[in-house]
Write a structure and sequence with these properties.
alpha+beta, 11 strands
């Protein structure tokens, strides 16, 4: 058997062919890993950008069936905020502004695409939310606010399910790409670089970036699944949901709806929020678990809920700290001073790092904005 001599600081060491092969591949392992990592870095960026484009699309992929129990009909694109009854009131030629998720800009979106989600089939959507979409005769009774809670909850559940599917898809694509790059490189290495009778099969990727990526994505998936369980337990399958609603005889230039969080002493409380400008009135509704009622009422007590201007401050806090599902009238936004716009967009971009407990030190809303426009 052929023998090899290795010279190092400790002297020399005799090796047989198997020992030498193991030593050789151990010595070049870092170089192989670096090469694969560099190739993967470019592919990772490409795959992630494609994935961001997919999850940010105006028409999210439809789920297989309606959210209603035991209904297997394909869902339609429902509006979490009523298109005709609400969004139409703040639209300009059918368009509204929506803050960008990752940039300090406003995005122009048609109200046909604003706030949509693949929730229910056509029949169940009409049956469940007929009061919310009634343009002519809106009756703000208990049924109205119950329908509002169900629609907002359905939007959030659909969004979380979509997030889980998208993250699982991203994990699969990145893992497959890393595996493909590794296999391709090692095959080329074994065929061309080294002797054909010896193959390098002991590649270890425990220190590779793909494992860190997997850990991060899996944590996000588990967090999303935890949020889904929470919504099902605390809202969907519970009779202990409490609500508070306000019907204000003035209107504002924004509409928003979604789930926001408030930091309590020992846990985070979630609130389903809605702020909807109808023709001549603004509806503000809050729905929350009974266990959090005392703490949330304590938070609300910092505002004078009988005063419209104090209510406006509450709405501003919920708008900038609460939900990504928010839309502005175009002309009103453009009329705001630049520094106000910048502060709002900066806060909005960092929404996941903030809490509605934190007060904002600027104001960006006014009542009856359209009346003021018409008189100028």
């Amino acid at each position: 058997m052929k023998k090899y001599t290795l010279f190092n600081n400790d002297g020399q060491k005799e090796m047989d062919e198997e020992e030498y092969t193991q030593w050789f591949f151990s010595a070049i392992h870092g170089h192989i890993l670096k090469k694969i990592e560099n190739d993967f870095k470019h592919k990772q960026k490409e795959i992630t950008n494609e994935w961001i484009g997919e999850v940010s699309r105006k028409h999210p992929k439809k789920q297989r069936s309606c959210l209603y129990n035991d209904c297997n009909i394909e869902p339609i694109y429902s509006h979490s905020i009523s298109k005709k009854s609400v969004l139409g009131n703040i639209a300009k030629n059918g368009y509204v502004y929506m803050p960008s998720i990752d940039k300090d800009i406003m995005t122009l979106v048609h109200i046909s695409n604003a706030s949509i989600f693949p929730g229910f089939c056509c029949q169940h959507d009409n049956d469940l939310f007929q009061k919310l979409d009634n343009v002519k005769n809106v009756d703000f009774d208990n049924d109205f606010f119950t329908q509002l809670e169900i629609r907002t909850l359905s939007y959030e559940i659909s969004d979380i399910k979509r997030t889980i599917i998208n993250l699982e898809d991203l994990l699969e694509k990145l893992s497959l790409e890393y595996e493909t790059l590794t296999s391709s490189f090692l095959q080329k290495f074994n065929n061309e670089f080294y002797r054909k009778e010896v193959s390098y099969t002991g590649f270890r990727c425990s220190e590779s970036s793909i494992n860190k990526i997997k850990t991060t994505i899996l944590e996000r998936i588990e967090n999303a699944k935890g949020n889904l369980r929470f919504l099902n337990q605390e809202f969907l399958c519970s009779d202990n949901v409490m609500g508070q609603g306000f019907v204000i005889g003035e209107i504002i230039p924004i509409a928003f709806s979604g789930l926001c969080s408030i930091q309590l002493e020992d846990h985070v409380a979630d609130i389903l929020i809605n702020c909807l400008p109808y023709k001549t009135q603004t509806i503000v509704s809050l729905h929350f678990s009974e266990r959090d009622a005392h703490s949330i009422q304590s938070f609300l007590s910092t505002f004078n809920l009988t005063d419209d201007n104090s209510l406006l401050r509450l709405i501003e806090t919920l708008a900038v700290r609460g939900t990504r599902n928010i839309f502005f009238n175009i002309d009103y936004w453009n009329s705001l001073e630049k520094h106000i716009q910048n502060m709002f967009l900066c806060d909005f971009k960092n929404i996941e790092k903030s809490s509605i407990n934190e007060a904002i030190d600027y104001s960006f809303l006014t009542w009856n904005w359209n009346n003021k426009e018409s008189t100028t």
